[in-house]
Structure formats: structure tokens, C-alpha cells
Amino acid sequence: MSASAHADVKKVVLAYSGGLDTSVILKWLQVEYGCEVVTFTADLGQGEELEPARAKAKLMGIPDEHIFIDDLREEFVRDFVFPMMRANARYEGDYLLGTSIARPLISKRLIEIARETGADAIAHGATGKGNDQVRFELSAYALDPNVKVIAPWREWDLTSRTALIDFAEKHQIQVPKDKRGESPFSTDANLLHTSSEGKVLEDPWEETPDYVYSRTNNPEDAPDAPEYITIDFEKGDGVALNGEAMSPATLLAALNDLGKKHGIGRLDLVENRFVGMKSRGMYETPGGEIYARAHRGIEQITLDRGAAHLKDELMPKYAELIYNGFWFAPEREMLQAAIDHSQEKVGGTVRLKLYKGNASVVGRKSANSLYSEAHVTFEDDAGAYDQADAAGFIKLNALRLRLLAQRDRG
Amino acid sequence: MSASAHADVKKVVLAYSGGLDTSVILKWLQVEYGCEVVTFTADLGQGEELEPARAKAKLMGIPDEHIFIDDLREEFVRDFVFPMMRANARYEGDYLLGTSIARPLISKRLIEIARETGADAIAHGATGKGNDQVRFELSAYALDPNVKVIAPWREWDLTSRTALIDFAEKHQIQVPKDKRGESPFSTDANLLHTSSEGKVLEDPWEETPDYVYSRTNNPEDAPDAPEYITIDFEKGDGVALNGEAMSPATLLAALNDLGKKHGIGRLDLVENRFVGMKSRGMYETPGGEIYARAHRGIEQITLDRGAAHLKDELMPKYAELIYNGFWFAPEREMLQAAIDHSQEKVGGTVRLKLYKGNASVVGRKSANSLYSEAHVTFEDDAGAYDQADAAGFIKLNALRLRLLAQRDRG
Amino acid sequence: MSASAHADVKKVVLAYSGGLDTSVILKWLQVEYGCEVVTFTADLGQGEELEPARAKAKLMGIPDEHIFIDDLREEFVRDFVFPMMRANARYEGDYLLGTSIARPLISKRLIEIARETGADAIAHGATGKGNDQVRFELSAYALDPNVKVIAPWREWDLTSRTALIDFAEKHQIQVPKDKRGESPFSTDANLLHTSSEGKVLEDPWEETPDYVYSRTNNPEDAPDAPEYITIDFEKGDGVALNGEAMSPATLLAALNDLGKKHGIGRLDLVENRFVGMKSRGMYETPGGEIYARAHRGIEQITLDRGAAHLKDELMPKYAELIYNGFWFAPEREMLQAAIDHSQEKVGGTVRLKLYKGNASVVGRKSANSLYSEAHVTFEDDAGAYDQADAAGFIKLNALRLRLLAQRDRG
Amino acid sequence: MSASAHADVKKVVLAYSGGLDTSVILKWLQVEYGCEVVTFTADLGQGEELEPARAKAKLMGIPDEHIFIDDLREEFVRDFVFPMMRANARYEGDYLLGTSIARPLISKRLIEIARETGADAIAHGATGKGNDQVRFELSAYALDPNVKVIAPWREWDLTSRTALIDFAEKHQIQVPKDKRGESPFSTDANLLHTSSEGKVLEDPWEETPDYVYSRTNNPEDAPDAPEYITIDFEKGDGVALNGEAMSPATLLAALNDLGKKHGIGRLDLVENRFVGMKSRGMYETPGGEIYARAHRGIEQITLDRGAAHLKDELMPKYAELIYNGFWFAPEREMLQAAIDHSQEKVGGTVRLKLYKGNASVVGRKSANSLYSEAHVTFEDDAGAYDQADAAGFIKLNALRLRLLAQRDRG
């Protein structure tokens, strides 16, 4: 990027964690771009103190009014996680999209803060090989087509750990002892999940070492007795645990505790990145896994077959859109409109058994149930269903196959 | 059905298990239709002795040349289960289609035997409320458009247990003591799974009683130590367990033993039947669950993203076709052609950890791997990937979103 | 149907055209069911006088308060045709669903009138071989699960023309001279289209005789000079013709006049019926064909690619649902929610050239246009688009293909 | 690109038309890259003399053995156009993909020639704003992951017409008089179509001027009498015109003559490019339009409904893949496998009427027909179809809707 391009940027909002890498980025922006930096630190439930980020920002000369620390946990679960869960979204059959779903919210706040502070650019700490850069930037451009996006990892020459630490020391950025060496893997965390990838996880034949896990007990160490819980749903969203009403983030946090205890939600996956390569990740989604199973459970008795099958057919594309960063694209919104339309009557209670890695639906009931014992019973159904109808049903479904067979198998 | 319709049938091939219900059907066909009956009893791995069926058929006057008892286990797994597993098929998100996939094979043999014996009709013991009647009959019509199908449960007046037993006794059919009362639930079994439904399972809020399970240990009673296994794949199909080459049916049987031991593959589901009602079933698919996870595991490193995502998008429709009985329909064959095309290089070894209900992929390797450590590494990648490319990639993916935003959010 | 079943019906609402067939049905219901009959005659723009239907009903003893004649033209176009057109729906690539889309509205009114008049059944004149019986009845059951549906053509023994006319004469129903012989084909008409099928059209190799057409000039007889028109759209729906604001039905009627004049909208199709057979039909959809092309034209400049492609992927299923009679099914409503979400900005003006069977979009403009001459121009684009971005875009899109090639083509 | 990068290229195969632009590219490669150039000129039926390209290449010092001129017309139609037509592919509802489908074949030959001549790079003359660069390069990388691709329009500084002509004159490249000024639009042509875009076409509200068309008569100037033709199909591909057997390219050429005469196949489209912008193009696909309609016509009577509807659902994605340049991607090949599987019995004769822009199917017949007059007839069907079956068919299809209505509309 040319010097004049740098000169264009007067003020940049940085997604700032307070950690070493984004601290280096903060300083680098000040030095290389010569611009004002606004820091934005989000509490998405990652389980870290945020106030140290404020202190560090101040140390690097950021004025109070340019330091934003927001608790986004409720918005995250209510407006991003739950809508996604309504779709039963799993990427490539398994992944609950814990990292993917957080990025658009961060970008949304970056753009809002840019508007509030009159900034003309945003910056993030994602690398040039991953999906997160795409997710951050597509969301940002969708919300502000004229924003400038600075992705230092794609621009700078601090491409080795040594160079990064040299830069930090040269600019009086404190380097924690445990950051001096190479970290054995990289993580991302929020209220929905923790992901780990890189280094020790890079050989997909090697089992993930136990020390990688931070959010779940090893199932082998989980309690020997199962635990039963209930989750209540209304209009497709969870509203209570064991009969106690809870806000979205509170509910997910409580499920995380339960999932952790019982070793639920570990996933070892080799997935296909949007940028074209395969990568191996370890995901821990303790509460999300329980919630996802419960949501399918309540849909089983309250959702019509036509709606349920359409949802299943649309889901892979919906999940791909979120994975690829297209949360704010019209086609994701269209799919959401269809999905949300189906959830009006998805309410009731699901009972689950939690035991050593398993979260199994064992019961479901609902005032909106479409399940009809009168129809399905092996007993006398008092005329609810006329078995003779099945003959005609089969005959007409078979007609085209018989015409085919007459032609082809004659 | 009129007497003249009955008179049309000279010889019928009956899917005959040797149990009370199909024995009554056998006799009823002789009495009501006045026709010759050919019995067909298939070994699909349901784990029952088949010779007693021969003896019973003889007792009812069926000559030797009209008694067919076939071991179809290898054909079942090789030509039906494995092709379906290539698609990662799960109906309504979970069900591995264990009953659905067996029906077309039975119909295929019924039609073959009808041709061999000059029969003009087939008969089955499925009820008028379920999916199996549809599956049997659609397959039969697809293979022989002129066959007559007799479904006694839709025709006769033996609609209560008492009437059935009276008929049996009147015709000297032995009624086992445990069949005198009402069975507390109904089951279907083959090498892939055992399903249970009805009676005690009809309230979807009530947890399935432990005595319903026959194919799996309760996870709580499973071994306290995990067990590691490997499965080898070639062209999308399993070929070896722990390095030992096995035929399809042998492999599935061995996985069933492992799954049973570790309590794997239980599923409590409320599903949507093709005939329009919801039903609650309990499925046990011990080996199938392990196999399905392993297959996804090997695809993770050997299948291209475009192929994998297309498979995921097609899967719900493919599973629905099998569930609804359209195995021999052109659209199922078209989807199979697409799926099989993708499996050419799906080979290698998957390592799984089995533990108290969990079957987790913990490693995978392949000579055909598309996973490139060189590309994905956090370390220096020696130029395999140019991070600057990501900027252009994002810019052009974002272009339409920016044009939208310029219009809509200006 | 047993006598007792007949006795169950006290009052039935009949979809009554006033023609011979439904007059016979009216009488037959009175005679066979011994029930009160309520007649419902809808003006859907079929171009026939409706008052004669009132007179005939009276002649058969129907009291005034049981004769319903409704002008549904605006509701038909506004709430059924236009929503369907938003989806660009064409069944099997071509058919604009003119008959299919009218049936749910008729059923809706039948059920409403049944509620108003305390009737417990409805009746229609569709035969047992066609799709219309399915459409009428699925819609009726979806709106009133307990309604009884009487389909005389599936019940009675008036299966030959002679028997029907005998019945009519026996019951003093006037038989028009031109109805004495066999009609050479059968038609259905409404504001959207006229369909013709049967008899002289039954051989799909024979060209449709010219006398079958009633709604369009032969293109060879159409004016030798083209005519240019404009249609204005707002939120996905047509609102004006040549700059003159019009209601939905008025607009469609005006387009029908234009389409008739220029010989537009003839379609000779062999289609697949829901009941399993193929049939050959001739459709004339003069205004609908023009409208459909215009709608695609305005979408071209106002709809985002992601939205447009998702609509194209969903369309075949959406069209199939309407064709099969599932207008009031949840999955149709879900798709509609997605489609409608996309139409918010679909507004502007389309210019078409009408000439001897052709309706060609030749221009489109919109205040909501996403078309950017600045981006697409071959001229200097003043930096709107950086061609260098394309290199990275291609490189990352190619990455998975290169990894595949390294494995497979090495 | 750095000098050292240039130095890496020793020999490059250039897609060379012989026109001014690719002649400038040829020289520019010699000058800037200092590498050997191999020229490849394909006859894809674009209707231009190719020998002048040889002469020009020689003039610029290319030795005979490095000049490749290939007639690819039969391969183009047989292996690219016809397989695509089997899918009834139309991009965004209308576009027959005439340019898109030619690019992978050109790339395939570029890579083959690179292998034959030991070249390490290929070059093409597509600009950085269009789809063709993507199509050329994705195909090339899919066939040779290590090839270098040179796209001069993304690299050089000859970005104005003046600069280009200055360069040409400086290097003794002849500049035709009509190339001195700006061309009023840009074209691409092959046996399937001619596309025109740019300049005078850039305002989507302005009707395309008549001088833009080169492949079709104005319908207004087409013959006043219609012409009837027949096309015979075998296994989904056209094999004869009016009963005369023809090779693929010969058939398409003959249809082009007919289409031109009758003014068939003009399309004015605003489409969405893969690179993110909308563009307006004028397509002329005279023979292709006739062929596409005929193919649908023969499918109407020979393809089962399940197969036909699956094809319709898959088509938009298939067309998008071709449009975006993914011909050699696994997912396109999977879809092709499914499509080809459906075409085994797609054979017979279609009769069309050609008249002033219209190509209408008016008849179709086949030894493989699935159309059954016995089933569909309004006359007595001799028991082929039992209308009573429809009652059961409707009842079970309605069951879920009734259960819904009982819950929701009670």
C-alpha cells in the first residue's frame, strides 16, 4: 500500500482484545498510518477480563472517549446465535459455527463506532489465510460500502514471531512471558464456543492432546451419574431451563456449565475454508450442542413435515453463507425469513439426558404438538385414519414408476 | 375386494418371517384367495433362526420348491447400506434409515421369485398406517408394473388381536404364549438396526424404558475405558477394521459388536411418516452410527469442498427418497450417480474413539488426502499461499454487497 | 359410499359454473345425498356471464340466500397471481400455472361460504384423473380439517356422456345443443389463462388445431408492426401500464388485450400430473407471459445476485407446490416469505416490444438500480474497480482445484 | 510483477485470434517477458478465417512449429455444448451460456499445447473486469496446478486505446483502419452464439441498435411464412435434422442457418457477473435456442417426472457453475453424472414451427414415450386408472395439513 493510501486514513477503529497481537497492531497503526486509533473491545462471553484492555489502550495514548468496551452477550445470543439455531445450522454436517456467527456482530459494532467517532477505517487482527478476515470485511462492506479496511497481517512485514516481539519491545509494549515462545495452538472463544487450531493440531491423524480443551471436561472424567434437564422453547427460541425463565445469554451460559460438567460438545473436524484450503480444528460447544439437540427435539412434535424438510434442504446453504461471512447478504436474510416463518408454533418443553459426552433428547411435549396418538396408535383409532386410503395413495405414487417399468423392464 | 379379484390371483409370493402374524397371513391367503402360496424368508442379519420358518411353512402345506430362504446379508450391505452411507444419509437430521433401506431388497427378491415360480402376486405383512407398505409396493411396482400386491392388513377383518388369535387357533396355527397378550411394542431388525415403536413408546414425553433396547448396552453400563479402532475405506466404502480386511456384511457385524459393547447408536426420534402422521420410534444402529461417522471422517480429508457441499445439499432429498420408498426411482438413481462419482478417491484410514455412547473421529489419514499442511500452517509456508490474494478475493466477493449498501444504506 | 355416509351430509357448497356438468352435479347432490345445496359461482375473469348461473340455480330450487356469485378478480390477481409472479414461477420450465393458482382461491371461498351458511360439506366438478381435485381438496382440508368433500366424478355412475345427458333430461336440466355431442376438447379459463386439453389434443405429435385457441391471435395474423409498452413495478408487483396506474386485475386484463392482439403466450406442453400420468395441454397466457418477462426484466437491475440465484434455485420447488395443490402448506408460505423479502426494492420501469408472439424486454430503468455503469464500463472507471483484485479472487477460487489437480492429475 | 517473476517464464502459449489486441499481447509478451511465444488459434465456429492469424504470427517471428491452428468445432459441440444442453441450462432464467461454455475448451487446448511444447505459462486476452479471465484461469489451474497464467490486461499499462495503438505502431503491428477509433461495442462469437456488450449497450434502458446484430435477421424482416422442421434425438443429444443424420457441429450449424433466417434467439439481458457487478449484454443464439426448446420437447414425453423435476432443481446451480468457470470442478462433474444418467431414453422426434422469432414445439413422438393415452384419456380407459385411488391419494397427502389446521385454525 502506498504512502498516499496510508495518508488517506485519518482515524481507524480497531477490534482490540488487549492481547499482544492486537496491541502490536494498535501501535503499528499509529506508527505506519500516523492515524488516530479508536479501540473496540467486545464482551462476547469469551471469559476474559476486559478492563486490562482499557488500561493498555490508555498506555498507548488512546484517550478515554476513543476506548469502547461493550458487553454484547445478550445481543450476540438473541440476534445471532438463536436465529442461527432456529435453522439447525451445522457446517459440513457438524460444526455449530461458533466463530463464524460472532464476526458479523463485531463488524456491526466497528462500523457503528466508526460512524459515532467519525472514523474512516476499521482494522482487525485476522490473518490472510483464514475465514475471519473474509467475515469481518464482508460484513463491514455490507454495512458501509465506503469504509476502508486495514488488515495488518496481510500488509506488514512482521511475519515471524521474532519480528513481532522485536516490534513490541521497540515500542514499549509489554510481552507476557508465555507469549515469548510459540503458542502450541491458537484459540478463539465466545459464549457459544472455543475453537483451537494450528501447530499441534495440524496433523489430522494425531489425536488432539488433552491440554487443548478448556471448555469441557473429558467425558471420562465427567460424573458417573446422568443428569436430566428440561428446556422450554417459545417461537423457536429457548426461554427457560428446568422451568426457570432465563434471558438468551443467561440460558446459554447455564447450558455451558452443564455441558462442561458432562463433557458435551467436543468436535474434532477437518473443514473446508472459504479461502480454498482444508484446516483441522477442535471445537468445544458445550451449551450449544445441548441447545441444538433440544431445538430439533421440540421441532419434532411442533413442525409440519413440509416445513421441516424444506428447512433441512435449505440448511447446508444457510450454514455455508454464515461460514463464508455472508450474514448481511440478502440471500441469508431471505433464508432467515423462511426459517423464522416456520418457528411461530415451535414451543414446548424438551427433556434431555446428559451423560459423559451425550446429550440425548428423551422426551418432548407441547401445547402446539402435531403428534397425534389417535392417528399413529397400534390400537383402535376410532376412525381417525382409514387404512384403505393407503392403497390409493400408493397406487398413484406408483403410477409413474409403473409406466417407466412398462417401458424399460417390459 | 371382490371375489372375482381374488379369483384373479393364482399364486402369491409372501414375505414370510415364520412369526405368528405372517403365518396367519399365509393361511388367510390360502383360505380367502384360494391360491398357491410361495414363502420367502430373508436373512438380513436380524439375528433369528430361519429354519423354523421352513418347518412352519411345510406344516401349512407349502411344498419344498415353494419355500425360499435366502441369506441376503452381503447383498444388503454391499448394494444397499454402503451406497446409502456414501451419501451420509440421515432422515430428518438423525435417522440412519435402517428399516427403509431393507425394504427395496425384499421387494426385489419377491419379484424375482415371482418370476421364477410363475406367481402373479406378492403379499406382505405391513400395516396400512406405516411407511413399509409404501416401500414394499413402490419397489415392487417399479420392478414389475403388472404385479398384484396383496396387503392383508388393509383388506381383512382381523383387526383386533383377539380376532387374529381366533383365526390362528381355528386354523391350527400355533400361538406362542408370549404372543397371546399384547406385545408392549413392535420391532423390526436387520444387520443395520433394530427399530421399536408403538404402545409404551407412543407418548413422546415418556422416556423409553430400558427393556426396549436389545442391540446396545446402556451407556452407563458400557466399559469405563475407551476403545480405539481404525476403519479403512476404498472408493467410499469400508474395507477393513483395525487393519483386517472384511467383506461389507462382516465389517458391519463387527462394528455392531463394538457399538453394542460401548452403547453407541441409540436414537429416540419423533419422525414424519410419508403417510402423513408423526410417529415416535426408538432406533438402535450401533455399527451404522460408527460407520457413518467414520465415513464423514475420511471424506473430510479426501473430498473437495465443492463435492462435499453439493453432497450435503442433496442429502436431505436423497434420504427422503429412501425413507418414502423411492429406491428404484430414477431420481434416486440420478443422485446415486452423482454421489458415487464423488467417491472415487474417498479412501484411507479413520481412527475412532468409542466410549459410553460416543463414537468420535480422532484421526484420519489418506494417500489421497487434499489436506495440505503447507497451505494451512501458521508457520512459514514457503510461498504456497500468498496472503495478498485474500485482499482481492474479499474485494470482489464484497462488490455486490457494497453496491447494495450504496443503494440501501446510503 | 354408504347410505349412512350420505345421510351425514346436511348441506353442501358446490362450486357451480352454471354449465351442464355442474348443473347435473347440483341435481345429483339433491337426489343422491338428499341434502341442501348452496351454489358458489366465482368471477375469476373467465369471460362468461354469471347471472345465468343464478337463474339456473333458482330453477333447481336453490333459494336466493344460498346462491353466491362473487367477483374475485382483484383478489385473484392481487393475492394469488402477483405473489406467484414474484417468484418467476414456471412449472416444468414453461407453464405459468394459470389453472393451478385459481383453485386455492375457489376452495377458500367454498370454506368461507360453508362457515357462513352452516354447511358441512363442499363439492366440486373436477374428475378423478386430474390435478384439480387434488388442488381443491388439499386447500379445503388445509382451511377446514373437518370439512367433507364430495367429488361426484369419483363417486357416481354417470361415467359416459350418454348417461350424463340421460340424467339431465330425466331431471329437466336443459341440455344445450352444442353439449349433446362430445366436445372436441375441454377448457378452463380465468383472468390469467385459458387451458385446453383432451380429445383432439391427446396425440402429442399432432399440432394443435387453430380452432382450439380462444385467447390469442395466431401470430401470423397479428399486426405487422411491433408495439412498445412500459410496465411500472413497485415492491415486485406491477402498478402501471404505459405510465397509467392500474389495479392488479385491471393491469392483467389490459395486458391480456395486448397479448391477444400480438399472439403472445401460446404454449403447447406435455406435462407431468401430480396423480402420476403425463398429459398434453395447450395454454394461452397472453398477459401473464408479458408480465412474467417484465418482472424478470425489472429484477435484472434491482435484485442482488445472491437473492436472484437463491430465487432461481427455489423456484422449481415453489412451482411444483402450487401445481400440486399445496398453496396453503407451510413450505409454500415459507418460500413466499423468502421471495417477498427479496422484492422490497424491485421497482422501476420495463420497456417491452410486442411483435407476433414475442414479448421482449428492450429496456429497464429504476431509482433502485444496482447496475453501475461506473463499474462495468469499458472506459476509464475512475477507480471504481481495481482489476488487480481479480488476480487474488481467481487465485483463491482456484486453490481447491489446484490441490485436487496436484493429487489427481500429477 | 517483478522482473524476476518475468524471468521465470521461458515459454508461453497465447490464445491468439490474430486480431489487433492479441497481436499487441503477443508482441508485449516478447518484449516484456522476453520469452518464447506459442500461438494457439481455435476454430470454434466463430466464422472468421484463421489463416491470417498464421501469417501475422509468422510476421512477429513465431516459428511454424509454435503456431497451432485447430478446428475444434466438433469437440466443442459434442463434448461441451451438447452435455450442457442435456441439463436445459440457462443462466438467470434465460442465457444459454454461449461464451461460458467455450472457455474451458480453449483452456484445455492451451494446457495440452503447453505440455507438447514444454511451455511453462499460458496467456489470454480477457480483461480484469469480466468473467472470461476467471473461466480461462480456473480451467487452466484445474488441469495443471503449476501452470503460470499471464493476463496482460491486468498487468500492463496500455490501458487506453491510444496507448495500445501507440504500442502497436511502435512495434510494426498493422492497425486496421476500423480499429483506430473506438469500437462501438465488443463481441465474442462461436458456433453457439455471438455476444455483444459495452459502449452503446451500456445503458440498460436504451434499446439495442439494429446494427449490433450479426447472427440473426430482425424478426420483422424474417419470412412471412412459418417453416416446420424436425429434430431427432438419441440419448439426450440431437442426431438428425428433418430426418437427415448430422454430426453435432453440422447439426448446430444447420440450426443456426434456420434460426438466422427466422430471427430466432435474440436476448437482451442484464446479468450478474461472477466478479460482482451487473452487465448488459446482447446475445444471439439462433440454433441453440431452437435446439434447447427441442430438447425440452423430447424430454416431455420420455423423461419421468421425478427425473425431470430433479433436473429442474439442479439446473440453476449447474448453469451458475458453468457461468462462473467451474466446468472442470468436481461438483459440475457430479451434476453431469446425474444429468447424463437421466438421458439414456431421451430419444425420438420433435417437430417445431419457426416463425419470426418464435421456435415452438408443436409435436413430439418417441419409441420411448412415457405418455399414455390410455391413462390420460377423457374417454373410457378400460381400467388403466382407477379414479377411486385418487381419494386415498388426496386423503393421505392432506393428512398433515389437516393436523396442522386442527392445531392452528381450530
From TrEMBL, chains A, B, C, D:
The keyword Lyase does not apply. One of its GO terms (molecular function) is ATP binding. L-citrulline binds at residues 95, 100, 131, 135, 186, 195, 271, 283. It comes from Qipengyuania oceanensis. This is Argininosuccinate synthase. Belongs to the argininosuccinate synthase family. Type 1 subfamily. Residues 185-402 form the Arginosuccinate synthase C-terminal domain. GO terms for biological process: argininosuccinate metabolic process; L-arginine biosynthetic process; urea cycle.
